[in-house]
Design brief:
Elements lengths: L4 H22 L11 H17 L3 E5 L6 E5 L8 E7 L19 E3 L2 E3 L7 H16 L7 E7 L7 H6 L4 H4 L3 E4 L11 E6 L1 E10 L5 E2 H4 L6 H11 L21 H8 L5 H7 L13 H7 L2 E9 L9 E2 L2 E10 L5 H15 L5 E10 L2 E2 L5 H14 L4 E5 L6 H8 L2 E6 L13 E3 H19 L3
Parallel strand pairs: 3-6, 3-7, 7-17, 8-16
Antiparallel strand pairs: 1-2, 2-6, 4-5, 5-18, 8-15, 8-17, 9-13, 9-14, 10-12, 11-13
Bound molecules: ligand BES and zinc ion.
Length: about 450
């Protein structure tokens, strides 16, 4: 069968159930970084494993040293392509809680949007592929290709266990193309195929001073304040124009091609609208680059969290004994996260004031990714997306990171297709995360059409 009238009719009929199932999954608080949520994370894995099992796929819950991964496969079809759908069922922390209109794990529909943590990142998006495959099989017809699923529980904490296990899973995961929906449309109603992502390197820096907090009257002026030293160290890493100041940081940065710059210049981008949508007066960033170039293809430095001293009510005049920052770099091809770590350590040695000591812990590291822009899979996706969204997708890069994606390319030797159904104002990682209900249903339709298109390739 083709994903033509029969299946599309069936998908339309099943739309209320598709939505109800997503709501059910979103109720499970699978925050992978929260050690008190281990049970709930496991529950979210079982939920999707059971859904795939009921549809008749071969399913395995694969334990890791951390959270489990769910693997499933439809029957092998001789001579037909094999696709691996990768996604994640883990979600980011939900704080600040009081900014959520409804509870993060009490999914609620308002104005055509489904609000909950994980709605777009990534339960809602990965479920589009699960639904299309389950419904295809429920129709009693065989798929025109083999679809494998790998849905993990540690993407939001760097995918280290998957990375370690990938070589031994090479045969099981063997495929012609990995399909991932964990990115976005370019703009509302303008779908995109994302052929590049930035990599990432994340750190926790502690600056330690006196052995305990000190009265700032008795000791102020006589010792280095760790909170000030931390701010100075962080400030020394970037200039006012957004240029990272760590020696060697730009050495391996691959320049944007003129062709790419010209293509992106043709995308409808409006800086003032972009600024007002996020509540700032003006955008800012590295000189000489447009906003899309800065977000997608230039490396950056960001402070993600800062803690030191008195956070409670009122005044407490102390010199804090210690200060901590969480910071990260977004990396682009061909920067290497471990070389960045070495350069940061050197920079800290060169800039840390005498009288305090620094300690750096490197957390996650992943390089930037580039995928083919003209493969047969891209052509198949063009056709599938056009039929579901009514417009052809544009080719873009994005600035977020999917840590395992370059390892798929290297270890599995496969193509990569990143098809995002989300919107840039879906509030991923923020309060009031959402996924537009219509985009969920369009994603399911596009996914069904994709199997059809890929099935025609061999
Ligand atoms: N869905 C994102 C990746 C993404 C974000 C792709 C924006 C395209 C645009 C993914 O779930 C994510 O958030 N990854 C983390 C990885 C990190 C915690 C190691 C990220 O990018 O911060
Ligand atoms: Zn995320």
């Amino acid at each position: 069968m083709t994903a033509s009238k029969d299946l599309l009719g069936q998908l339309a009929e099943s739309a209320p159930r598709h939505l109800a199932e997503l709501v059910e999954w979103l109720r499970i608080p699978s925050v992978s970084s929260d050690s008190t949520r281990i049970h709930e994370v496991k529950q979210a894995a079982s939920w999707v494993a059971e859904k795939l099992e009921r549809a008749g796929l071969d399913v395995e819950i694969m334990p890791t040293e951390g959270h489990p991964m769910v693997y499933a496969e439809s029957p092998k079809i001789d001579g037909a392509p094999v696709v691996l759908v990768y996604g994640h069922y883990d979600v980011q922390p939900v704080e600040p809680l009081d900014e959520w209109v409804n509870g993060p794990f009490e999914p609620t529909i308002r104005d055509g949007n489904l609000y909950a943590r994980g709605a777009t990142d990534d339960k809602g998006q990965v479920l589009t592929h699960v639904q299309s495959v389950c419904d295809w099989l429920a129709s009693g017809q065989s798929l025109p290709l083999q679809v494998k699923f790998l849905i993990e529980g540690e993407e939001e904490v760097g995918s280290e266990n998957l990375e370690r296990m990938l070589p031994e899973l090479r045969e099981k995961l063997a495929c012609d193309c990995v399909v991932i929906s964990d990115s976005g449309q370019y703009s509302d109603g303008q779908p995109a195929i994302t052929y590049g992502l930035r990599g990432i390197a994340t750190y926790e820096l502690t600056v330690n001073g006196p052995s305990q907090d000190l009265h700032s009257g008795s000791f102020g002026g006589a010792v280095v304040n760790p909170a000030i030293a931390l701010c100075q160290l962080l400030g020394s890493m970037i200039d006012g124009q957004g240029r990272v100041q760590i020696p060697g940081y730009y050495d391996n940065v691959r320049d944007l091609s003129q062709e790419e710059r010209d293509q992106w210049a043709g995308l409808p981008q409006n800086d003032s609208e972009f600024a007002s949508a996020i509540g700032v007066d003006k955008l800012s960033g590295e000189q000489g680059y447009t906003t899309d170039e800065r977000r997608w293809a230039r490396p950056t430095f960001d402070v993600n969290g800062l803690t030191s001293g008195h956070q409670g009510e009122g005044v407490k005049t102390i010199i804090p004994a210690t200060a901590k920052a969480k910071f990260s770099f977004r990396l682009v091809p061909d920067q290497d996260p471990s070389e960045v770590t070495a350069a940061v350590e050197q920079h800290l040695n060169d800039h840390c004031p005498v009288g305090v000591k620094w300690n750096l812990e490197a957390d996650h590291g992943a390089p930037g990714m580039l995928a083919a822009t003209d493969s047969r899979f891209v052509h198949a996706a063009n056709a599938a997306i056009e039929s579901a969204f009514g417009v052809l997708p544009v080719l873009i890069r994005e600035g977020g990171s999917i840590p395992i994606v370059t390892r798929f390319q290297e270890v599995l030797g496969c193509d990569c297709l990143l098809l995002g159904w989300g919107l840039s104002d879906d509030n991923a990682h923020s309060p009031n995360e959402k996924f537009r209900v219509e985009d969920y249903h369009r994603g399911i339709r596009a996914s069904a059409m994709l199997w059809d298109e890929i099935g025609k390739l061999n």
